[in-house]
Write a structure and sequence with these properties.
- The complex is a heterodimer of chains A (382) and B (255).
- Chain A has helices spanning 22-27, 61-69, 101-111, 116-130, 145-157, 175-190, 202-208, 226-236; strands at residues 2-15, 33-46, 50-54, 76-81, 85-87, 163-166, 194-198, 211-216, 219-224, 246-247, 252-260, 273-281, 289-296, 301-306, 319-325, 333-342, 351-361.
- Chain A has 382 residues and is of the alpha+beta class.
- The longest helix of chain A is centred in the middle third of the chain and has 16 residues, at 175-190.
- Chain A is globular.
- Chain B is 75% helix and 0% strand.
- Chain B is built from 12 helices and no strands.
- Chain B has helices spanning 3-25, 34-53, 61-83, 85-88, 90-95, 102-130, 139-163, 167-180, 196-199, 203-216, 223-248, 251-254.
- In chain B, helix 1 (3-25) packs across helix 6, helix 3 (61-83) runs antiparallel to helix 6 and helix 7 runs antiparallel to helix 10 (203-216).
- The longest helix of chain B has 29 residues, at 102-130.
- Chain B is globular, with a radius of gyration of 19 Å.
- Chain B starts with a helix and ends with a helix.
- The chains are: A alpha+beta (382), B mainly alpha (255).
- The interface between A and B is medium-sized, with 32 and 32 residues.
């Protein structure tokens, strides 16, 4: 059954320099600048699918969600949604600081689409999930920000909608709470609810979604099987989109980075990898240290090593330094490198370059998930 | 629309009305007493000014003024609240889908609740001093009329206020002369005959004289003016809903 249908949906926003004034507007036509946030979007989503939506900032993801949620209407085209929608993206809508937790549960729950009777039935579950103790009868201005978030999330997650809109909110709260939340999402999937997931975390996207839509500048660039779409999305994002910054006191200049195996031969998990830094000294220095940081493209700091910690005494002369990794313990993903050269103190580097280069670990014999590849085997005792 | 949807709209309206009332009075010292204190204070001061300083010859002037002040304050406060209700609740509109009409309507309903409470006190006072009267029953359709008038103006003005933010300021400014052009401080008999025609075009004139008649037990209601009020309210109600419905599709983009 088709749960969400978008037919030729386009959305235009008019930007005006200043707020229109009624009297002026009646006599002088206003010049308006137009931005098309969505262009000719066609979508048909079946019941029970989990759809990932990825794209750069400004690609139209939140506009698309707002139209699906019914918060705003398309300029052209039509939207049809069969069933109730709940958005986990906007938590705590309508929360009023002077009202108690209990009162806010009813207010927020009603705003999100539940009748009073339905909230009565779920009240105990909502309070238990939020885990804020006796504070439930205190005004929420006494709550910590974490309690606020847990309360809002707890109401939203008990909505029992047919369509659920989720974003980075999944990562909210402490580990225990995050696990509770992810479990709830899996429950939704098991109950054949339709879920839209917007995220920059490619691991969540590939793990949880059945299909992925890639939005670029308001159009659907591509859609299909998660791994395929995510890989082509990552490939297309050029290095300049990462905030490339360089600073330092200037005693060392870095010329080139070489990663082997070189391009052509793909890098596999568990393989031997070498990272070579070609540099030269601009002035004489007493101490020379190099550090390399490896970050995944979805923003996780994987590992950082430097010659100071490893107690490598480097000769303070121009040349190259090679980091030899016996077995690369990273799973299939795209990674970028930060390079730092310093003397005594890392905090005052000779040079630091963020995202100097990137490399990709190919999907080889990928039998595990997450971030890290383990050299392993299993043993059973009966 | 399914039954569940109707119950949902009822619950949502109730939730928004109670939020508005609670948020107004929860943290105040006098709480609900403020509903009576404000008009009472005004009545006392106005009685002193217009009985001893500028002498207006009206029997029972304090009751006269009070019976006009209460509906005026309901009207004035509810349309000011209603007009800015969309902007006040911009976060809700941008985040949650629901029939947007509920916002100005629940603002008027919240003020209506306060109005009815204060009217109950006034009725109580009148019954004790002047005795029960059949005319008190007319309060019900009259209150309905003022409320509908307030709703229609709120729908119209709130939808305009989203795009043209000076609407709420223009309204505030207009309400001041409007007050003086309504027979609240002075009886309608003071208005010169040659201006009475235009004067009655003000929908609050018919409503005000009706309220005063009910409480003062004097037949000063001007039926032609009341007829004008009903007609104008009906037209505004249709226009208000129409304009609001058309514009509400894109409210979230402009707030």
């Amino acid at each position: 059954m088709d749960v969400v249908t978008l037919h030729n949906v386009s959305k235009k926003y008019s930007l005006s320099q200043e707020r229109p004034v009624l009297l002026k507007n009646l006599f002088i036509p206003q010049k308006k600048e137009e931005v098309w946030a969505l262009k000719n979007v066609n979508l048909t989503i079946k019941k029970g699918e989990t759809i990932g939506i990825i794209g750069e900032n400004g690609s139209g993801k939140s506009t698309l969600l707002k139209i699906i949620a019914g918060v705003t209407a398309p300029t052209k085209g039509s939207v049809k949604v069969n069933g109730r929608i709940a958005s986990l993206i906007e938590l705590g809508a309508g929360f009023h600081q002077d009202l108690t937790g209990r009162e806010n549960i009813y207010l927020n729950g009603t705003l999100l689409g539940l009748t009073k009777k339905e909230i009565d039935k779920k009240y105990k579950d909502i309070v238990d999930f939020a885990d804020i103790g006796n504070f439930i009868d205190q005004p929420i201005r006494t709550y910590s920000s974490g309690m606020n978030v847990r309360l809002g999330f707890s109401v939203a997650i008990h909505l029992d909608p047919d369509v659920l809109l989720v974003d980075e909110v999944l990562a909210v709260g402490d580990t225990q709470f995050q696990q509770k939340s992810l479990r709830k999402i899996s429950e939704f999937k098991k109950n054949k609810k339709t879920i839209f997931l917007v995220s920059h975390n490619m691991i969540y996207i590939q793990d949880l979604c059945d299909n992925v839509i890639w939005l670029d500048k308001g159009r659907i660039e591509n859609k299909g099987e998660p791994h395929k779409i995510v890989t082509s999305y990552i490939k297309s994002s050029k290095l300049n989109t990462i905030n490339k910054s360089t600073y330092g006191t200037g005693e060392v200049a870095i010329h080139k980075i070489e990663i082997s195996p070189t391009k052509g031969k793909s890098i596999l998990s568990g393989q031997e990898v070498a990272i070579k830094i070609y540099y030269s000294l601009m002035t004489k220095v007493k101490l020379l240290n190099f550090g390399i940081g490896i970050w995944s493209y979805d923003g996780i700091y994987c590992v950082g090593v430097n010659t100071k910690f490893d107690e490598e005494k480097l000769n303070p002369k121009s040349g190259s330094v090679n980091l030899l990794i016996d077995s690369l313990p990273l799973l299939s993903n795209r990674y970028y490198l930060n390079i730092i050269a310093f003397g005594e103190n890392e905090a005052f580097p000779y040079v630091f370059i963020q995202a100097v280069t990137s490399f990709e670990v190919a999907k080889g014999n990928q039998n595990s998930r997450g971030l890290v590849w383990l050299k392993r085997h299993w043993v059973q005792n009966i | 629309m399914k039954l569940r949807d109707v119950i949902y709209i009822k619950d949502l309206t109730f939730a928004l009305v109670s939020k508005e009332l609670k948020s107004k009075y929860k943290s105040t010292t006098l709480g609900f007493l403020w509903i009576v204190v404000n008009p009472l204070l005004q009545m006392i001061v106005l009685t002193i000014v217009f009985s001893f300083i500028i002498k207006i010859q009206v029997d029972n002037y304090s009751l006269f003024v009070f019976s006009g002040l209460l509906p005026w304050m309901f009207f004035s406060l509810s349309i000011q609240g209603g007009t800015s209700s969309l902007i006040t609740n911009r976060d809700l509109i941008k985040k949650v889908p629901f029939p947007r009409e509920i916002l100005p309507i629940s603002s008027v309903l919240a003020h209506l609740f306060i109005f009815i409470l204060s009217l109950v006190l006034l009725v109580f006072f009148v019954v004790i001093t002047l005795g029960l009267s059949f005319s008190l029953l007319f309060l019900i359709p009259l209150i309905l009329l003022v409320a509908l008038f307030a709703v229609s103006l709120s729908l119209l003005l709130s939808s305009l206020d989203v795009y043209y933010r000076d609407v709420s300021f223009m309204l505030q400014a207009l309400l001041i002369p409007w007050f003086y052009l309504t027979p609240i401080l002075y009886p309608i008999s003071y208005v010169p005959k040659q201006f009475l025609g235009i004067y009655q075009l003000n929908p609050m004139v018919g409503i005000m004289t009706a309220f005063q008649s009910i409480f003062l037990k004097e037949n000063i209601v001007v039926w032609s003016a009341l007829g004008v009020s009903v007609l104008e309210t009906a037209i505004l109600l249709v226009a208000g809903f129409f304009v609001f419905k058309k514009r509400s599709k894109y409210f979230a983009d402009w707030l």
